[in-house]
Design a protein that fits this description.
two-stranded antiparallel sheet, about 5% strand, globular
Length: about 260
């Protein structure tokens, strides 16, 4: 059986009926796939907006960061400023080396560190905005992993939201106040959420965890978390233990013949 299809040309085109039916099925499948991707996208946007609210408020309201976080700003800003002027051997902190490394880069790129007479007020603002943006980027990355990589379900997504933005909104305002400070506190929360996201993806997708890149990623992540605060090293502990003790992953157990298929993302 054939179906006549009217085209722009004068000559009608005949196509088999099953070809027309297949075309309709493909269109329906594409619509269903789009619909299935919409809830994770909305979830990611919601988590990103909640995580980014401190930065949005500070920038939109032109909040004076010196009045909000004077102690953290004094420690972190002048620590980076002195580091960039050659005093690194004379000063040290017990924690926050990861956030300090990022803040050194922010201060250097902003030009405030090299200015003869820096505008300290503007430097404070840019320094703080950049730190809050770093926290947002880490939390948004964690939410993206459980949103757009196949495997994690809605239980995982709810758990990640509780870990990532719960401390900001369920701690009677204290956690939200900490999220406004350009310090290592809130970055610890973001790193913890990223560690949970790594664990959830590796748990739900065993074929990913068998790749050697995941072992490398677990070591790098645990090292960065420890650099931010020694006790934050536990953020990557569950992820690393999963890679070590899951069958087939011990001591050279990366299986080349079971590498993940990129098309399964």
């Amino acid at each position: 059986m054939a179906v006549t299809v009217i085209t722009d040309s004068a000559t009608p085109v005949s196509r088999p009926a099953f070809a027309v039916e297949n075309q309709g099925c493909n269109s329906g499948s594409a619509l269903k796939e789009t619909d299935s991707q919409l809830p994770p996208l909305l979830y990611w946007l919601a988590v990103a907006m909640m995580a980014g609210l401190p930065l949005i408020l500070v920038v939109a309201l032109r909040a004076e960061i010196l009045a909000i976080a004077s102690e953290s700003l004094a420690y972190r800003f002048f620590y980076s400023y002195r580091m960039l002027h050659g005093e690194g051997g004379n000063i040290w902190f017990l924690q926050g080396y990861l956030v300090s490394a990022a803040q050194n880069a922010f201060l250097f790129l902003s030009g405030a560190a090299s200015a003869a007479e820096p505008d300290l007020r503007w430097a404070f603002q840019v320094f703080s905005w950049s730190t809050l943006a770093l926290n947002l980027a880490v939390l948004a990355t964690a939410a993206a992993l459980v949103s757009f990589v196949r495997g994690p379900d809605w239980t995982d997504r709810v758990l990640l939201a509780l870990v990532g933005v719960g401390p900001m909104y369920v701690t009677t305002g204290q956690g939200f106040q900490f999220s406004l400070w350009p310090d290592y506190y809130h970055l610890n929360v973001a790193l913890c959420a990223l560690g949970v996201a790594f664990f959830q993806v590796a748990w739900r997708r065993p074929e990913f965890a068998r790749h050697v890149c995941w072992a490398f990623a677990s070591g790098v992540f645990s090292g960065l978390a420890t650099a931010n605060k020694v006790t934050a090293g536990v953020c990557g502990a569950a992820f690393m233990l999963l890679l070590i003790f899951r069958p087939g992953l011990r001591a050279g157990g990366a299986l080349p013949h079971q590498r993940p298929n990129p098309s399964t993302f």
